[in-house]
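Pasting two entries for a bug report.
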Amino acid sequence: MRTNTRLFGEIEIEDAKIITIERGIIGFPDLKHFTLIFDAERGQKASIMWLQSMDDGDVAIPVMVPTDLLPEYRPTVNDELLEPLGALTPDNTYILVTVRVPECMEDISVNLKAPIIVNMDTNKGSQLIVEDDYEVRYNIYGLIGEGKERAGE
């Protein structure tokens, strides 16, 4: 699939790397097809990646793996909501959270309340509201340096 993007120019993504989110994501219910774009030098270990819409090249949302900074993050989700994704295992489940990057970097935060859960075997995903008492704007500014230290950077 090929699209012209605002941030990355024209890109072509193999169909096998397209994530289908049937119900869309918060704020973009009509966008269904996405791909993950990350710093090639860091590979999938990049802290912040982009969830790039393949339906609208102007939409790219910064995302990250929450457990990189919060190893204890374990959202509780109703199993019935996960059924459309296919059989989930620890090896095929990829959890992402959206990153809010305001003008003042000290206010950088992630949405722990509405993670995006992806089955990497089926390339199906869903953004869900978790049952836990997680914050919508969980400040990660102080954790960013700690995460880099743990990773040896």
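Entry 2 (this is the one that rendered wrong in the viewer):
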Amino acid sequence: MQKTDRPDKFANPKNKFRRQRPSSSKKKENLQEWPMRLNKYLAHAGIASRREADELIKNGMVTVNGKTITEMGFKVNRNDEVRFGGEVILPEKPVYILLNKPKNYITTTKDERNRKTVMELVKEPAKKYRIFPVGRLDRKTTGVLLLTNDGDLAKKLLHPKYKVEKLYHVVLDRNLKQQDLQKIREGLKLDDGMIYVDDISYIKGASHSEVGVKIHSGRNRIVRRIFEHLGYNVKKLDRVMFAGLTKKGVERGKWRYLTGKEVQYLKML
């Protein structure tokens, strides 16, 4: 499987400290000891040495959960958001994984009812990195799902203003009438407001019970609700594209790392 490139250097307004590549010995240190001293966290992220990290902290250049930290010896927990120069940093390299999600898996990191989660399908990288799903696919929906530990990119891909496109293959319980297809194309008023698709069409070479829907809305179960609103039941729902990423070459239930070009594309959206 192909691993992603190392992250770019962080910009430093004073240009005093340079991002440093952690030594192999540092990589082997146990990162599971939480809470962790903030200067150690910065050192593991390759921002600076621990002594230099103390200077960064002292000068108010580091924030934790949105609050500027100047206290020496301050400790952070595993799920805290640490930023330097406005960028989220992690004591591990950012990773990006594309999963072809099968049915009957919950899109969450854990489930209180002990149902199967997508994390069980990415056990290998999940042991090394604090990855999480970007958005949700309901239990019955299959297809492209991105997992990462890059919080900034995840927020960007989910934010409505970026209008990230998703493409779904929908199989209905009966043929979709032409007038209903046109209603969807023109926009529908649902209980939580109007919804517009970017495109909708019948699947070429298939019956009219199969349609393709391109949409950028991230509202809960929105594709299913569109058709249910018109009296159709969705038998199968497969996301074949998310933010330009497809499941091509990835079998159901399998995953791969994104290529460097794919990561760069996502960051340029």
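Dev reply: Rendering is fixed now. As a check, the viewer should reflect this: The first strand starts at residue 36 and ends at 37.
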